[in-house]
Structures are given as C-alpha cells and as structure tokens.
Amino acid sequence: MDDPSEDEVADHRRGPRRRGDALIVAIFEATLAELAEVGYAELTMERVASRARASKGSLYRRWSSRAELVVDALEHERPHHREVPDTGNIRQDLLSFLGSLMSMHDSPSGEATHGLMAEVIRHPELMREVRLRFIDPTIAQVLDRLRRGVVRGEVRPSALTYRIASLGPALLRQHYLLYGAPIPESVVIEIVDEVLMPLVAV
C-alpha cells in the first residue's frame, strides 16, 4: 500500500480533534494497527498520523523517530501493566507469567519485535531504553515470583539471580524471533518444566 498523500494525512482535521491522553491513546492504537497491517518496515509517521486523525507535527513533537514511537506503543500494551495473580505455587506462577508474555508476542504489538531488534543494534541509546523499559522490568517480575517461592520453601535462595530470572523471558523471545507467532503453549510449558524448575526448585 502506498503512503497516504498530504491531503489524506490532513483528513484528521475533518474529524473530531483529540487532545491530551485521548490523543496519545489514539496514536498508540494507530501505531499498533499499522504494525498489524503493514509491519514495522512499512510503518511511517505519516500513516500513523492519518489513522489517528492527528497532525504529523503532533507525533514529531513527542517522538523523534518511529522506533521511539513503537517502543512507547508497545510499553502501553505490555503485560507488566496488568497484575498477574499469586497462585501460591511457583510452577503455576511461572506458567502464568510466561503465558502473559506469550500473549503479548502473539498480539499485534508483537509484530514490531523484529524491526525493533534491528533498530536497537544500530542505536545504543535505544538499546538502553528497551532494556530499561522492557527487559529489566520483566526480569524483576520473575525475581518477585521466585522470592515468593523462597518464602514458601519451593525455591532455593541461591536461585535468586538476574541470570536465572532472565532465562524464561529470553527463551520465549528467542523462540518468537526464530519461529514467529503464534507461540504454542507447549513452548511455555517446556521452558518452565525443562529449564526453570530444575534450576530453581529446592
């Protein structure tokens, strides 16, 4: 599909104008919708502006590049915004949490992952942002679940390390990058039962 013309991009002025949080949400939704339709490689600020009924200038005032916009849109949809319940069992906790990550990868927002990986390699500052806003918070949530397991006597205290906590999300991410979506539920079960539980169980 060709990029929208200047007239098409300006069509947002014919509809109701959005401001503040409503505008931001509309832009994020438009970004994810564009990713689902055309993929990261074909996503442009012009297309997002047209779909969100916003001016291109309103996007560039907030985001200097499409990569930064996609990072914010993805963060808006990340599972860490939704509380994953404490099941009272470390295996179920890990299955539940990795299952929420699997759902994220299988959603339209997961479409951005391949493109973002190329962007972070070329831009160290974006790599730091991705790590601080996506990777580290995810690992922290795994550590929280492992700590609860230690208190219950299910997890050995020496398993409370950044490296061990990073394994589950990293293996899930690797599977997505190599094989794409949808990720079979069996992959999550294998990661938990064949890798994580043998490493952390008392």
How would you characterize the overall build of this protein?
- There is one protein chain.
- The protein is mainly alpha-helical.
- It has helices spanning 6-9, 20-42, 45-52, 56-60, 66-77, 90-106, 113-122, 124-152, 162-179, 185-200.
- Helix content is 70%, strand content 0%.
- α2 (20-42) crosses α3, α5 packs parallel to α8 (124-152) and α6 (90-106) packs antiparallel against α8 (124-152).
- The radius of gyration is 19 Å and the shape is elongated.
Brief summary:
The chain has 10 helices and no strands.
How would you sum up the global shape?
elongated
CATH class of the largest domain: Mainly Alpha
Count of discrete domains: 2
CATH-assigned fold name of the largest domain: Tetracycline Repressor, domain 2
Total number of helical segments?
10
**So, the CATH homologous superfamily of the largest domain?**
Tetracycline Repressor, domain 2
Tell me what the CATH architecture of the largest domain is: Orthogonal Bundle
User: Which strand-content bin applies to the residues?
Assistant: under 5%
**Strand-and-helix sequence, N→C?**
HHHHHHHHHH
Question: Which class do the helix and strand fractions yield?
Answer: mainly alpha
Biggest beta sheet summary: none
Output the radius of gyration: 19 Å
Kindly report how far apart the N and C termini lie: 56 Å
Helix percent reads over 70%
Low-confidence stretches: 1-13
- Calculate the mean pLDDT score and round it: 84
The tally of strands reads: 0
